[in-house]
Amino acid sequence: MGLMRLVYASESRLVEANRHLEIDRIVESARRLNAGNDITGFLLATTGAFAQVLEGDDGAVFETYTRIAADPRHGAIQLLAKAPIDRRRFPRWSMGLAERDETTSFIFGLYGVTPEADLPRQEADVLVDLSEELARQRA
Question: Contact at 8 Å (CB) between 41 and 52?
Fold first, then answer.
């Protein structure tokens, strides 16, 4: 099977009071499962939405996406892109994370992600580029 990249966006159904704890749980679980399935990627989170880039074997990536789509913490999930790739853009990240907050808001804004134009309204290429930019800053 070949290497592929999948990009999705969804509405966040997290309650604000537990939001950071739930995001930590999502990332912890993703890192464990992704490492076991040789999946890499990056999660973007705002108060209202998620977007994620997943890379790996096409069967493992699709299985992961199917599990995410069934997760009640996600609503109105949209598959934005699914394509074969020659190389990973997140080879060192079993799951990276960037939340839009006071330190990253400017960078999110440079890529057009604002409260009025949240993650689900963005093109897949924009989300991949934003994820790569934020991953470089965390490396």
Answer: yes
Q: What pLDDT, on the 0 to 100 scale, is given for residue 105? A: 92
Phi, psi of 86 (to 5 degrees): -90, -30
* Closest to 79 (Cα-Cα) out of 114, 57, 98, 54: 54
Q: What is the rounded CA–CA span in Å between residue 77 and residue 69?
A: 6
| Residues 8, 65 contacting (CB under 8 angstroms) | yes
| Cα–Cα nearest to 12, from 80, 78, 76, 62 | 76
Q: How far is CA 76 from CA 3, 79, 84, in A?
A: 26, 10, 25
Q: What is the mean pLDDT of each run of 10 residues along the chain (139 residues)?
A: 92 87 89 90 94 96 94 93 95 91 92 92 96 86
